[in-house]
Amino acid sequence: MTIRAVVRGVGHYLPERVVENAEFEKTLDTTDEWIRTRTGIERRHFAAEGETTSQLAIKAAQAALADAGLTPDDIDAIVVATSTPDFTFPSVATMVQAGLGMTSGFAYDVQAVCAGFVFALTNANGMILSGQANRVLVIGAETFSRIMDWTDRGTCVLFGDGAGALVVEGVDAAGTPQDRGILAVDLHSDGRFRDLLYVDGGVSSNGVAGHLRMQGNAVFKHAVQKLAETAHAALEKAGLGPEDVTWIVPHQANLRIITGTAGRMGVPMERVIVTVQDHGNTSAASIPLALSVGKARGQLKQGDLVVTEAIGGGLAWGSVVLRW
Ligand code: UT7
Q1: How confident is the model at residue 35 (pLDDT cuts 50, 70, 90)?
Q2: Which atom of ligand 1 is nearest to the CA of 251?
Q3: Is the pLDDT of residue 266 over 90?
Q4: CB atoms within 10 A of CB 98
Q5: How far is the CA of 216 from the centre of ligand 1 (A)?
Q6: CATH classification of 2-173, choosing from 3.40.50.1110, 2.170.150.70, 1.10.150.130, 3.40.47.10?
Q7: Tell me, what's the pLDDT at 1?
Q8: What is the CATH topology of the domain spanning 181-323?
Q9: I need a surface site. Which of 64, 77, 98, 320 has the fewest CB within 10 A?
Q10: Is ligand 1 within 6 A of the CB of residue 219?
Q11: How much is the pTM?
């Protein structure tokens, strides 16, 4: 017998404002055609003026709680993955805690940029397995529109805002690969690659929020190789292989990265959940958003084997294998 962290509920929230690729043609030397063919992105959502990351996170959390049939009082801990918090502190997670009306438990943020949700989910799994918490709300929430340089066509057309949330719960299990819940995790980072993807501002450097800077082509090459490797490693730890995968639910940065990674894993695109066309790259929010949309579309069903994988600034990357 063992304990597994099982997904009990999922939900998401997207800001109302939708921006189509063609909008960027008005201000930048770019085209809908370039963005679509090089990235797969067709549109993205941007938060309204004054709409914050914690507000998106609260709405996603409420949707996940409703899906789980639970109230905020049933939750022991909240972990929010974000690189775009409302404030330097307090954490977005404690703001979500207050916003949900929750006066017990504990809450904190995790920062691993676009890989943040995979790190946060791993963290929640560890807390559940160690008995520190039994029900954890794991949220990815971002407002990357706030750190865009709107004159840099190589980055500002790529990102969007949004939030997704899971309720994970400790459940007794047999300890086999057939169990529901998180079966294996695999995390990595390599700080030598800092300059490939970073924000040129921060509290202890220049005191400003800064703008995202990226060497897209170099990140692309790392992404396809490292994502396939980490997904394979996590599957192996779970005692499973690519042939067992029902769905890859990848970080949604670029359709070509998603296709390239699936190809390297030997998993056909019919078994990949893709939302990048509608959301752009929402960083730590992209995987829980894709899980929530995948469930709403009727793609994800109980018992399906799901592989999530993500990479982002750091570089930091990793994978979680779970049975839905
Ligand atoms: O989530 C975190 C991880 N991030 C990622 O995974 C992003 C990884 N990188 C990418 O997705 C791709 O590298 C990009 C979409 C950012 C760029 O695609 P690419 O095929 O790697 O293009 P590139 O950077 O090699 O640029 C090709 C050309 C360049 O022009 P020249 O130098 O060949 O004349 C760029 O200036 O495309 C140009 N370009 C654009 N053209 C029109 C770059 N951005 C644009 C644009 N519109 N928006």
Answers
A1: very high
A2: 1
A3: yes
A4: 13
A5: 6
A6: 3.40.47.10
A7: 83
A8: Peroxisomal Thiolase; Chain A, domain 1 (3.40.47)
A9: 98
A10: yes
A11: 0.97
